[in-house]
Design brief:
Layout lengths: L8 E3 L4 E6 L6 E5 L10 H9 L3 E5 L15 H15 L5 E6 L1 H12 L4 E7 L4 H7 L5 H5 L1 H6 L4 H21 L7 H14 L5 H4 L4 H11 L8 E6 L21 E6 L6 H4 L1 H14 L1
Parallel strand pairs: 3-4, 3-5, 5-6, 6-7, 7-8
Antiparallel strand pairs: 1-2, 2-4
Amino acid sequence: MSLRDMRPLRSEETGMSYLLTGEADAPLVVCLHGFPDIPRTWDPLTNALVRAGFRVVSPWLPGYAPSSLEGSLDPPAVVRRLLALIGELSPDAPVRLAGHDWGAILAHVALSQRPELFRAAAILSIPHPLVLRRNVGDFPRQLLRSSYMALFQLPAVPERVIRARDFAFVEWLWNIWSPGFSPGADYFDELKQCLRASLPAPLCYYRSLRSPEIIRELGAILQTDPIPVPSLYLHGERDGCMGVELIDGQERYFSALFKTVRLAEAGHFVHLERPEEVNRAIVEWFLAH
Protein backbone atom coordinates (compact mmCIF):
# COMPACT_ATOMS: atom_id res chain seq x y z
CA MET A 1 0.00 0.00 0.00
CA SER A 2 1.41 3.40 -1.00
CA LEU A 3 1.46 6.43 1.29
CA ARG A 4 -1.26 7.99 -0.86
CA ASP A 5 -3.55 5.03 -0.15
CA MET A 6 -3.21 5.25 3.62
CA ARG A 7 -6.15 6.35 5.74
CA PRO A 8 -5.44 8.89 8.50
CA LEU A 9 -5.29 7.59 12.05
CA ARG A 10 -6.68 9.67 14.90
CA SER A 11 -5.54 10.59 18.39
CA GLU A 12 -8.66 11.27 20.42
CA GLU A 13 -6.62 12.76 23.27
CA THR A 14 -5.03 15.45 21.09
CA GLY A 15 -7.60 15.72 18.29
CA MET A 16 -4.82 15.19 15.75
CA SER A 17 -5.00 13.01 12.65
CA TYR A 18 -1.81 11.54 11.23
CA LEU A 19 -0.21 9.09 8.81
CA LEU A 20 1.88 6.33 10.37
CA THR A 21 4.26 4.18 8.35
CA GLY A 22 6.84 1.52 9.30
CA GLU A 23 7.23 -1.43 11.63
CA ALA A 24 5.45 -1.10 14.97
CA ASP A 25 8.62 -1.67 17.01
CA ALA A 26 10.87 0.62 14.93
CA PRO A 27 12.23 3.88 16.40
CA LEU A 28 9.84 6.77 15.76
CA VAL A 29 10.40 9.88 13.66
CA VAL A 30 7.84 12.70 13.93
CA CYS A 31 7.57 14.99 10.86
CA LEU A 32 5.86 18.40 11.12
CA HIS A 33 4.68 20.34 8.06
CA GLY A 34 4.33 24.10 7.70
CA PHE A 35 2.12 26.61 5.88
CA PRO A 36 0.79 26.32 3.27
CA ASP A 37 1.40 22.59 3.30
CA ILE A 38 0.19 19.12 4.30
CA PRO A 39 1.73 15.86 5.58
CA ARG A 40 2.24 14.73 1.98
CA THR A 41 5.25 17.04 1.95
CA TRP A 42 7.11 14.31 3.85
CA ASP A 43 6.40 11.41 1.47
CA PRO A 44 9.92 11.25 -0.05
CA LEU A 45 11.59 11.46 3.37
CA THR A 46 9.15 8.95 4.84
CA ASN A 47 10.03 6.38 2.20
CA ALA A 48 13.74 6.87 2.86
CA LEU A 49 13.33 6.65 6.64
CA VAL A 50 11.20 3.51 6.51
CA ARG A 51 13.79 1.84 4.25
CA ALA A 52 16.40 2.77 6.87
CA GLY A 53 14.41 1.04 9.63
CA PHE A 54 12.41 3.88 11.17
CA ARG A 55 8.70 4.32 11.85
CA VAL A 56 7.35 7.70 10.70
CA VAL A 57 4.35 9.71 11.87
CA SER A 58 3.28 12.77 9.88
CA PRO A 59 0.38 14.62 11.53
CA TRP A 60 -1.88 17.28 10.16
CA LEU A 61 -1.03 20.09 12.55
CA PRO A 62 -3.84 21.27 14.82
CA GLY A 63 -6.02 23.61 12.77
CA TYR A 64 -5.52 21.62 9.56
CA ALA A 65 -8.36 19.25 8.65
CA PRO A 66 -8.79 16.36 9.33
CA SER A 67 -7.10 17.31 12.63
CA SER A 68 -9.24 19.30 15.05
CA LEU A 69 -9.84 22.95 14.19
CA GLU A 70 -10.79 23.75 17.77
CA GLY A 71 -8.77 24.94 20.74
CA SER A 72 -5.81 27.27 21.08
CA LEU A 73 -3.58 27.43 18.00
CA ASP A 74 -0.69 29.47 19.34
CA PRO A 75 2.76 27.80 19.21
CA PRO A 76 3.06 26.84 22.91
CA ALA A 77 -0.44 25.32 22.91
CA VAL A 78 0.20 23.42 19.68
CA VAL A 79 3.48 22.09 21.06
CA ARG A 80 1.69 20.80 24.15
CA ARG A 81 -0.58 18.77 21.88
CA LEU A 82 2.37 17.51 19.85
CA LEU A 83 4.16 16.41 23.00
CA ALA A 84 1.02 14.56 24.10
CA LEU A 85 0.88 12.80 20.71
CA ILE A 86 4.52 11.78 21.05
CA GLY A 87 3.70 10.41 24.50
CA GLU A 88 0.93 8.28 22.99
CA LEU A 89 3.01 6.89 20.13
CA SER A 90 6.36 6.43 21.87
CA PRO A 91 5.79 6.37 25.63
CA ASP A 92 9.03 4.57 26.48
CA ALA A 93 11.63 5.91 24.07
CA PRO A 94 12.75 9.32 22.83
CA VAL A 95 11.99 10.12 19.19
CA ARG A 96 13.61 11.87 16.25
CA LEU A 97 11.96 15.08 15.06
CA ALA A 98 11.81 16.78 11.65
CA GLY A 99 10.11 20.13 11.05
CA HIS A 100 9.72 22.49 8.10
CA ASP A 101 8.49 26.10 8.15
CA TRP A 102 5.93 26.33 11.01
CA GLY A 103 6.94 22.76 11.80
CA ALA A 104 10.48 24.06 12.29
CA ILE A 105 9.26 26.74 14.72
CA LEU A 106 7.29 24.16 16.66
CA ALA A 107 10.34 21.90 16.67
CA HIS A 108 12.48 24.63 18.23
CA VAL A 109 9.89 25.16 20.95
CA ALA A 110 9.48 21.43 21.63
CA LEU A 111 13.24 20.83 21.74
CA SER A 112 13.67 23.73 24.16
CA GLN A 113 10.80 22.71 26.40
CA ARG A 114 11.22 18.92 26.60
CA PRO A 115 14.64 17.97 25.20
CA GLU A 116 14.62 14.63 27.02
CA LEU A 117 11.90 13.41 24.65
CA PHE A 118 14.13 13.68 21.57
CA ARG A 119 17.14 11.75 20.29
CA ALA A 120 17.91 14.03 17.34
CA ALA A 121 16.31 16.68 15.14
CA ALA A 122 16.32 17.85 11.53
CA ILE A 123 15.08 21.41 11.08
CA LEU A 124 14.35 22.86 7.65
CA SER A 125 14.09 26.40 6.28
CA ILE A 126 13.37 28.38 9.48
CA PRO A 127 16.29 28.93 11.89
CA HIS A 128 16.08 29.32 15.64
CA PRO A 129 13.67 32.21 16.43
CA LEU A 130 16.24 33.94 18.63
CA VAL A 131 18.78 34.15 15.82
CA LEU A 132 16.05 35.58 13.61
CA ARG A 133 15.45 38.29 16.16
CA ARG A 134 19.19 39.04 16.28
CA ASN A 135 19.75 39.09 12.51
CA VAL A 136 16.63 40.52 10.93
CA GLY A 137 17.59 44.15 11.58
CA ASP A 138 20.72 43.70 9.46
CA PHE A 139 18.75 42.48 6.43
CA PRO A 140 15.80 44.82 5.71
CA ARG A 141 14.88 42.78 2.63
CA GLN A 142 13.55 40.10 4.99
CA LEU A 143 10.82 42.50 6.12
CA LEU A 144 9.46 42.45 2.57
CA ARG A 145 9.75 38.67 2.37
CA SER A 146 7.80 38.38 5.63
CA SER A 147 5.10 40.92 4.75
CA TYR A 148 2.60 38.10 4.23
CA MET A 149 2.74 37.52 7.99
CA ALA A 150 1.36 41.01 8.64
CA LEU A 151 -1.40 40.33 6.12
CA PHE A 152 -2.29 37.06 7.83
CA GLN A 153 -2.71 38.80 11.18
CA LEU A 154 -5.52 41.00 9.87
CA PRO A 155 -9.14 40.02 10.56
CA ALA A 156 -11.25 38.52 7.74
CA VAL A 157 -9.18 39.86 4.81
CA PRO A 158 -6.57 37.08 4.49
CA GLU A 159 -9.20 34.34 4.32
CA ARG A 160 -10.70 36.05 1.28
CA VAL A 161 -7.29 36.64 -0.29
CA ILE A 162 -6.24 33.01 0.15
CA ARG A 163 -9.50 31.55 -1.20
CA ALA A 164 -9.73 33.89 -4.21
CA ARG A 165 -9.37 32.43 -7.71
CA ASP A 166 -9.06 28.85 -6.47
CA PHE A 167 -6.28 29.60 -3.98
CA ALA A 168 -4.09 31.39 -6.51
CA PHE A 169 -2.31 33.16 -3.63
CA VAL A 170 -1.14 29.79 -2.27
CA GLU A 171 0.39 28.80 -5.61
CA TRP A 172 1.99 32.25 -5.82
CA LEU A 173 3.61 31.78 -2.40
CA TRP A 174 5.04 28.44 -3.47
CA ASN A 175 6.38 30.02 -6.65
CA ILE A 176 8.18 32.92 -4.96
CA TRP A 177 9.40 30.81 -2.04
CA SER A 178 10.77 28.04 -4.29
CA PRO A 179 11.43 29.73 -7.64
CA GLY A 180 10.97 27.45 -10.62
CA PHE A 181 9.57 24.56 -8.57
CA SER A 182 6.04 23.15 -8.47
CA PRO A 183 4.86 20.07 -6.58
CA GLY A 184 2.30 19.41 -9.34
CA ALA A 185 -1.43 19.86 -9.84
CA ASP A 186 -2.36 16.76 -7.85
CA TYR A 187 -0.39 18.01 -4.84
CA PHE A 188 -1.99 21.45 -5.04
CA ASP A 189 -5.44 19.87 -5.30
CA GLU A 190 -4.88 18.01 -2.02
CA LEU A 191 -3.43 21.10 -0.34
CA LYS A 192 -6.35 23.28 -1.47
CA GLN A 193 -8.84 20.69 -0.23
CA CYS A 194 -7.18 20.81 3.19
CA LEU A 195 -7.19 24.62 3.30
CA ARG A 196 -10.77 24.80 2.06
CA ALA A 197 -11.84 22.61 4.99
CA SER A 198 -9.56 24.34 7.51
CA LEU A 199 -9.64 28.11 7.08
CA PRO A 200 -9.43 30.32 9.04
CA ALA A 201 -7.81 28.01 11.62
CA PRO A 202 -4.30 27.89 10.02
CA LEU A 203 -4.16 31.69 10.23
CA CYS A 204 -4.51 31.51 14.01
CA TYR A 205 -0.82 30.55 14.20
CA TYR A 206 0.04 33.98 12.77
CA ARG A 207 -2.64 35.89 14.65
CA SER A 208 -1.44 34.48 17.96
CA LEU A 209 1.81 36.40 17.47
CA ARG A 210 -0.07 39.65 18.10
CA SER A 211 -0.53 38.59 21.73
CA PRO A 212 2.07 39.97 24.19
CA GLU A 213 1.29 37.04 26.50
CA ILE A 214 2.08 34.49 23.79
CA ILE A 215 5.29 36.31 22.85
CA ARG A 216 6.37 36.34 26.49
CA GLU A 217 5.59 32.63 26.86
CA LEU A 218 7.55 31.80 23.70
CA GLY A 219 10.47 33.89 24.90
CA ALA A 220 10.51 32.17 28.27
CA ILE A 221 10.64 28.76 26.58
CA LEU A 222 13.24 29.63 23.95
CA GLN A 223 15.54 31.56 26.27
CA THR A 224 16.18 28.59 28.51
CA ASP A 225 19.46 26.67 28.20
CA PRO A 226 20.74 25.94 24.69
CA ILE A 227 19.09 22.91 23.09
CA PRO A 228 20.96 19.73 24.17
CA VAL A 229 19.66 17.63 21.23
CA PRO A 230 21.89 16.80 18.23
CA SER A 231 20.39 18.93 15.46
CA LEU A 232 20.81 19.13 11.71
CA TYR A 233 19.74 22.32 9.95
CA LEU A 234 19.01 22.50 6.19
CA HIS A 235 18.35 25.63 4.15
CA GLY A 236 18.06 26.39 0.44
CA GLU A 237 20.20 29.27 -0.75
CA ARG A 238 17.40 30.53 -3.06
CA ASP A 239 14.75 30.51 -0.32
CA GLY A 240 12.29 33.30 -1.12
CA CYS A 241 10.56 33.09 2.25
CA MET A 242 13.50 33.12 4.65
CA GLY A 243 16.82 34.49 3.41
CA VAL A 244 19.76 32.16 4.00
CA GLU A 245 21.75 35.08 5.45
CA LEU A 246 19.52 35.03 8.55
CA ILE A 247 20.73 31.62 9.72
CA ASP A 248 24.24 32.78 10.68
CA GLY A 249 25.08 32.33 14.36
CA GLN A 250 22.25 30.00 15.37
CA GLU A 251 24.66 27.34 16.61
CA ARG A 252 24.97 29.35 19.84
CA TYR A 253 21.45 28.19 20.75
CA PHE A 254 22.45 24.50 20.65
CA SER A 255 24.73 22.82 23.17
CA ALA A 256 24.81 19.41 21.45
CA LEU A 257 26.30 18.62 18.05
CA PHE A 258 24.90 21.02 15.45
CA LYS A 259 25.40 20.87 11.68
CA THR A 260 24.23 23.20 8.90
CA VAL A 261 23.66 22.07 5.31
CA ARG A 262 23.16 24.81 2.71
CA LEU A 263 21.84 23.69 -0.66
CA ALA A 264 22.59 25.83 -3.71
CA GLU A 265 19.83 26.31 -6.29
CA ALA A 266 17.15 25.25 -3.79
CA GLY A 267 14.33 27.29 -2.29
CA HIS A 268 12.05 27.09 0.72
CA PHE A 269 10.60 23.63 0.04
CA VAL A 270 14.09 22.20 -0.08
CA HIS A 271 13.03 18.68 0.93
CA LEU A 272 10.80 18.42 -2.17
CA GLU A 273 13.17 20.22 -4.53
CA ARG A 274 16.28 18.23 -3.57
CA PRO A 275 14.89 15.04 -2.01
CA GLU A 276 17.89 12.78 -2.63
CA GLU A 277 20.35 15.09 -0.90
CA VAL A 278 18.00 16.09 1.90
CA ASN A 279 16.84 12.52 2.56
CA ARG A 280 20.40 11.22 2.63
CA ALA A 281 21.51 13.92 5.06
CA ILE A 282 18.58 13.38 7.44
CA VAL A 283 18.72 9.57 7.35
CA GLU A 284 22.46 9.60 8.04
CA TRP A 285 21.96 12.07 10.90
CA PHE A 286 19.20 10.03 12.50
CA LEU A 287 21.14 6.77 12.13
CA ALA A 288 24.17 8.40 13.77
CA HIS A 289 22.14 9.74 16.70
